[in-house]
What does this fold into?
Amino acid sequence: MHPSLALRPLLCGAAFALATTFASAAHAASPVENHALAISWEPAFCLTVSGKPECASETPSRQDAHAFSLHGLWPQSGSYCGATAAQKSNDEAGKWSLLPAVTLSASTEALLKVDEPGTQSYLERHEWIEHGTCSGLTQQDFFAPTLAMLDGINASNLGSTVGANVGGHLTLAQLQAAAKLDYGTYASVYIEYLCISSGGKSYLEEVRFHMRLPSPLPSTVQSSYMAKPIKPASASQLCKASTPIYIKAVTN
It folds into this structure.
């Protein structure tokens, strides 16, 4: 069992909200809104940004070496909702340590550090300022369900298929077939697979689930939520059907 899955019961009680968290008053949550859930294969991500703290510290035993990690959940209707000009400027400049800290319950914070290694680079602050502020939710009610969705994907046929092939390769058809078992016949229309090239190989770097999600956010990804991409990835980012897709292993 992944460490994050062991922590899941801690998040299943009554909804937790802290007075110090906030949701953008200027962007109230809609009953249903298009979102993109981006999950990363961290070892492949680290091929191009090896100097980041989360990449320098990665080990074969850490969860992100054999399971997807959280990149972010992106409401598609806007960005930087209610953020100040200084916050937006610092975010766009990559000065994420200067952004306001995200305040979560102790259990959610612990899970986030496991499921999102990018917290070592203050990724959660960036994700909240650019995207979470447009959810109309508190920080707790934004991050906790998102982490639950990630854990469900890691336990799915898609997650298991990728995890079982670390250090090897798959085809796009194999990825799509696994996702079809979990998310329905048309999953290939709603789920994007992004690859990067390194050393003459194509590596799976990210998977994006395009969905119409209710508010409050659900804790699972379901076929009924799937929707066509509002902001699709560029063709150059997408994995190719004709090319083996390698699942990068941690080698340090």
Summary: Residues 1-26 have pLDDT under 50 and may be disordered.
